[in-house]
Write a structure and sequence with these properties.
By secondary structure, this protein is mostly helical. The chain has one domain (3-110). It is built from 6 helices and 2 strands; from the N terminus they run αααβααβα. It has helices at 3-29, 34-43, 50-53, 65-74, 79-87, 98-101, and strands at residues 63-64, 94-95. Strands 1-2 form a two-stranded antiparallel ribbon. Helix 1 (3-29) packs parallel to helix 5 (79-87) and helix 4 runs antiparallel to helix 5. The protein starts with a helix and ends in a 17-residue tail after the last helix.
Length: 118
């Protein structure tokens, strides 16, 4: 077996695992897999980092929780982003930006860079 063959098969295997993970996450979000949902709720605590939140920069704002989850899955966002979105208590509301989800998200005003100087 050549190294190229091994790399190609490893890539296919990884893509398959990611697809399975996304399918399971969608089942959890939509309530289709109650066992996994119950298990994850006991183990999971929602957290956001700047890196995770930036995965939603180009999301179609304003958007509902389900639209954001679909966007995250379609764009290949990390599982943590999808899990965080799933943890949001859905009251059918529409979110206008990431600030509605994570109020501590740094904005342009949070940086002390004076554009007028340059």
């Amino acid at each position: 077996m050549s190294d190229v063959w091994l790399l190609l098969n490893a890539k296919k295997y990884l893509l398959t695992l990611l697809q399975i993970e996304n399918i399971l996450l969608l089942q959890i979000v939509r309530g289709q897999n109650p066992f996994l949902l119950k298990t994850i709720k006991h183990l999971y605590i929602m957290y956001w980092t700047l890196e995770l939140a930036t995965k939603l920069d180009d999301a179609p704002w304003p958007a509902t929780k389900d639209e954001l989850i679909d966007y995250a899955v379609r764009t290949g966002a990390p599982a943590e982003v999808i899990e965080n979105l799933a943890e949001i208590e859905d009251e059918g509301e529409t979110y206008d930006s990431i600030l509605d989800i994570w109020p501590d998200y740094p904005t342009k005003d949070d940086f002390f860079f004076d554009e007028d100087e340059y």
